[in-house]
């Protein structure tokens, strides 16, 4: 394996694109470069001892995403029998090692990186279910990345889950006001201080990334998206299109927008299968029956502005 920041990583390339992954560190896509320029951001001085705190790449959110809580305590959930269990915010996948295989490139497509997490003693206390969770990445060409999350219930009881992505797109903070987010028809809401989800309001078809009203907001998709999610970035002379209508995919529930501070040189656009605390509020909660498999797929395309 290649070395990056003193860690074993997988590196693949196709034409102008380069991808870097850390399977043993949460199955994370670390970065995506095109012609040496960041599309997916990774910090120069990442603290690998606290992977959940690293602001970069694409942390995998599973089995739950966002904040869940019981009696005001974040990181706890109550099962159908009333048992309260501990499970970290955004789940445990981003903190655990994945097994990985790489299938060589064929034709225009790049190598296929397939990372797998299965249940074990470390997962059972907080999530007493048997599962197989897979993240699959492949460059369809040197400007197009296909991503699949595949969940299989390998146990005998129905399995609750709602997974998602946390893509950190590279963007100088000084360019937020000129960068436009275009969305299909959505309803906008957020998680309130008590953990409940706010009443939704009609979403806008476009926002600029300097708008405070989209920080930590959920843009819930009303049915099948009639257009992709798109970032238009004049300062970088590029647009990024996220196609959420892929063959065989589950419907994505929402797209979340977030960044950390006014000076952060990234902006997160996060396709989610549910909303925070769905295990209690039911908003996007999925129940996967024994032996069943579900796939959530998307495609990210990068193009120069014309």
3D structure, described in words:
The protein is mainly β and 306 residues long. It has one domain (2-304): Beta-galactosidase, Chain A, domain 5, CATH 2.70.98. 3% of the residues lie in helices and 43% in strands. It is built from 2 helices and 26 strands. It has a 9-stranded antiparallel sheet, with no helix packed on it. A hairpin with a 2-residue loop joins strand 4 and strand 5 (37-40). It is globular and about 55 Å long.
CATH class: Mainly Beta
Main sheet: strands, sense, barrel: 9 strands, antiparallel
Percent of residues in helices: under 10%
Structural class: mainly beta
How many beta-strand segments? Answer: 26
Instruction: Give the tally of structural domains.
Output: 1
Residue-averaged pLDDT, rounded? 95
Beta-strand share of residues:
35-45%
**Could you say which overall geometry the principal axes of the C-alpha atoms support?**
globular
The termini sit apart by 39 Å
Uncertain residue ranges: none
Rounded Rg = 18 Å
CATH architecture: Distorted Sandwich
List keywords for this structure.
six-stranded antiparallel sheet; nine-stranded antiparallel sheet; mainly beta
Strands, helices and their partners?
Elements: E1 2-4, E2 7-14, E3 17-22, E4 28-34, E5 37-40, E6 69-70, E7 73-74, E8 76-78, E9 84-86, E10 99-103, E11 112-118, H1 121-124, E12 131-141, E13 144-153, E14 159-161, E15 167-170, E16 180-182, E17 186-189, E18 201-202, E19 206-208, E20 217-221, E21 229-233, E22 238-243, E23 254-258, E24 266-272, H2 278-281, E25 286-288, E26 293-304
Antiparallel strand pairs: 1-2, 2-3, 3-4, 4-5, 6-7, 8-9, 10-11, 11-12, 12-13, 13-26, 14-25, 15-24, 16-19, 16-21, 17-18, 17-20, 20-23, 21-22, 22-26, 23-24
């Amino acid at each position: 394996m290649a070395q990056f920041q003193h860690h074993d990583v997988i590196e693949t390339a196709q034409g102008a694109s380069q991808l870097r992954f850390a399977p043993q560190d949460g199955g994370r896509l670390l970065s995506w470069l095109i012609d040496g320029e960041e599309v997916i951001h990774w910090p120069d001085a990442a603290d690998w001892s606290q992977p959940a705190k690293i602001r970069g790449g694409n942390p995998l959110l599973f089995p739950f995403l966002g904040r869940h809580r019981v009696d005001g305590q974040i990181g706890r959930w109550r099962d159908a029998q009333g048992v309260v269990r501990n499970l970290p915010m955004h789940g445990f996948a981003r903190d655990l090692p994945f097994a990985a295989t790489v299938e060589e490139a064929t034709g225009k497509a790049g190598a296929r990186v397939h990372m797998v997490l299965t249940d074990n003693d470390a997962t059972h206390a907080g999530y007493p279910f048997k599962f197989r969770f897979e993240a699959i990445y492949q460059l369809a060409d040197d400007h197009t990345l296909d991503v699949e999350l595949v969940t299989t219930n390998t146990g005998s009881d129905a399995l609750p889950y709602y997974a998602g992505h946390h893509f950190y797109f590279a963007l100088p903070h000084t360019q937020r006001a000129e960068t436009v987010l275009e969305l299909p028809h959505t309803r906008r809401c957020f998680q309130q201080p008590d953990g409940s989800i706010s009443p939704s309001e009609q979403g806008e078809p476009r926002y600029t990334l300097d708008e405070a009203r989209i920080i930590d907001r959920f843009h819930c998709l009303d049915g099948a998206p009639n257009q992709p999610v798109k970032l238009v970035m004049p300062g970088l002379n590029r647009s990024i299109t996220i196609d959420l209508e892929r063959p065989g995919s589950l419907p994505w529930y929402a797209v979340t927008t977030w960044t950390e501070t006014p000076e952060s040189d990234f902006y997160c656009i996060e396709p989610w299968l549910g909303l925070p605390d769905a295990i209690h509020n039911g908003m996007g909660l999925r129940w996967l029956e024994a032996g069943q498999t579900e796939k959530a797929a998307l495609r990210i395309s990068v193009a120069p502005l014309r």
